[in-house]
TrEMBL record:
Protein name per Swiss-Prot or TrEMBL: Chromosome partition protein Smc
Function of the molecule: Required for chromosome condensation and partitioning.
Entry's localization field: Cytoplasm
Portion of the full-length sequence here: 1 to 180 of 1180
Binding locations of ATP: 32-39
Lineage: superkingdom: Bacteria
Family: Belongs to the SMC family.
Gene for this chain: smc
Record's comment describing the protein's domains: Contains large globular domains required for ATP hydrolysis at each terminus and a third globular domain forming a flexible hinge near the middle of the molecule. These domains are separated by coiled-coil structures.
Assembly with partners or alone: Homodimer.
């Protein structure tokens, strides 16, 4: 499985629809300061279900929506689609390509789509979790994260180890069933 493409529209500095494609192996995004490189990694986190505005370097979730520039007005909706190549069937879904879309309106209304069909955040999380992707699976390591791991408390470090050992999904499922 690998990240095949990413399309942003109205997300942070990407007012216009912008698509980028990636190849298997290492891909590098380069550009001048402030050109939107970190916004690209924010978009990946966001479409994978990130719920914390702070993790996306904002104050409120609405900050992901293009807020206008001297050249153009703000937009009302942010949308990101990420396409994963699943021809090796890493993801437990019967498609060789999996597109995940997240959309958010200024009203706060939010929706997810999996291959174009409406889905819940929980569905997105379930598809991604066993693959080692997803928001808490350390597939994205931001600046400062390594420091916080080194300085973390034993309980926090345990969570990391459980994640790596693939145990945490069972804990998540147990907690979910206890809530019902
Ligand atoms: P550096 O090399 O300094 O890390 P970068 O390429 O990672 O830079 P980003 O942090 O991705 O740059 O982009 C910053 C730009 O995105 C800023 O100009 C900021 O104003 C713009 N930006 C962030 N959120 C929004 C938004 N909601 N609407 C419009 N522009 C935004
Ligand atoms: Mg940056």
């Amino acid at each position: 499985m690998y990240l095949k493409s990413l399309t942003l529209k109205g997300f942070k500095s990407f007012a216009d629809r912008t698509s980028m494609s990636f190849d298997p192996g290492l891909n590098v995004v380069v550009g001048p300061n402030g050109s939107g490189k970190s916004n690209v990694s924010d978009a990946i986190l966001w479409v994978l279900g990130e719920q914390s505005a702070k993790m996306l370097r904002g104050q409120a979730m609405e900050d992901v929506i293009f807020s206008g520039s001297s050249a153009r007005p703000a937009v009302g909706v942010a949308e990101v689609t990420l396409v994963l190549d699943n021809s090796d069937h890493t993801l437990p879904i019967d498609f060789s390509e999996v597109g995940i879309t997240r959309r958010m309106y200024r009203s706060g209304e939010s929706e997810y789509l999996i291959n174009g069909a409406p889905a819940r955040l929980m569905d997105v999380q379930d598809i991604l979790h066993d693959s080692g992707l997803g928001k808490d699976t350390h597939s994205i390591i931001s600046q400062g994260k390594l420091d916080s791991i080194l300085q973390s408390r034993p309980e926090e470090r345990r969570e990391l180890i459980e994640e790596a050992a693939d145990i945490s999904k069972h804990r998540r499922r147990k907690e979910r069933s206890l809530r019902k």
